[in-house]
């Protein structure tokens, strides 16, 4: 209990730890922005897409559940400064497994609502092209 209280006090002075993590890592910020763009690609935000986004934030990036709403708010406030091409540019120099991970996360979100809209397919196809990733890599098991 004392640690939780200390964390809350630290959060007041230092800001949310999840937001700090995202703000301090341009690649993570870019990936979350790309995932958010996939959520918005079909023109609506479904609950199932947000569930997948939250799970990815927690499991893949170690962002605490309590920080995710603040991270989303941060992305909304500051994400307009980065367009999709700029976000993708950060990934071009990363190893192929890291690029595949972004593509897999985007595909997970696109499929989350059980409706694959044409706009989602176009965004995913364009991202795969820019990342030099084959669509086959999305269905192959990770090695």
TrEMBL record:
This is TerB family tellurite resistance protein. It comes from Mesorhizobium montanum. InterPro entries: DjlA_N (IPR007791), TerB-like (IPR029024). Residues 33-138 form the Co-chaperone DjlA N-terminal domain. It comes from the Bacteria.
